[in-house]
Amino acid sequence: MSSLKERYQTKSEAYYTGVREDVLPMVPKHSKRVLEIGCGQGNTLAHLKSNGYCDWTCAVDLFPEAIEVARSKVDEVHQVNIEEAILPIEPGSINMILCLDVLEHLLNPQKVLAYLHTLLAPGGVIIASIPNVRHYSASLPLLFQNKWDYQSCGILDNTHIRFFVRDTAIDLMKSSGLTLDKVLPANLGRKGAFFNRLLFGLPESFLALQYLVKVSKPNAN
């Protein structure tokens, strides 16, 4: 079996370089300090800062090649395994944390979210994108063809360890005691969005490639 690093090396360049503009509807108008776990080359953080969504950015990624590129684009970088590291960041000092297509790669995402919770300032948010394993591209081959074929990317990405549907994604995000703010189905596509509206949201769980989930830490009384 190939090593974890070898499996990540088979991914397309877009896996590390893309800007996640799809999460902007979940992003607060302005956050002073933003941390991204699994930042790739830091382009999403750079986009947020250059467009006034934040003042300071911090990037965390497992792979040194990505971090070296991100270093010139963000204010602070850390090349670590977030499941093993304690970041040199003051607890209660981060206003927004991004975990975009990250949690499904972790052995213990609940533990990581509990740690990230401690970094949040009152009123701070965590925004995650989490693949939906009930999407028809995964569920129909399993149901009708007895197939569960891993791929280099997508819902059955060969580096995914955990699998989620809408409710379990929400449960995960709330597991440390944070409050659910918003859930959006992502990547429905035009036809999918049309049929979803036409049928009052009933097909959503089969059409959403992933869910965007936003949770928050209550403001101090």
Tell me what you see in this structure.
The chain has 221 residues and is an alpha/beta fold. 31% of the residues lie in helices and 24% in strands. It has helices at residues 4-9, 14-17, 43-50, 64-70, 109-119, 136-145, 166-174, 189-198, 204-207, and strands at residues 31-37, 54-61, 76-79, 94-100, 120-131, 179-186, 210-216. It has a seven-stranded mixed β-sheet, with helices on both faces. Strand 4 (94-100), helix 5 and strand 5 (120-131) form a beta-alpha-beta unit. The N and C termini lie far apart (52 Å).
Short synopsis of the structure:
By secondary structure, the chain is of the alpha/beta class. Helices cover 31% and strands 24% of the residues. It has a single domain, classed as Rossmann fold, CATH 3.40.50.150.
Report the CATH superfamily: Vaccinia Virus protein VP39
Low-confidence stretches: none
How many extended strands?
7
Strand content: 15-25%
Q: For the residues shown, what is the average pLDDT? A: 90
Topology, please?
Layout (H helix, E strand, L loop, with lengths): L3 H6 L4 H4 L13 E7 L5 H8 L3 E8 L2 H7 L5 E4 L14 E7 L8 H11 E12 L4 H10 L20 H9 L4 E8 L2 H10 L5 H4 L2 E7 L5
Parallel strand pairs: 1-2, 1-4, 2-3, 4-5
Antiparallel strand pairs: 5-7, 6-7
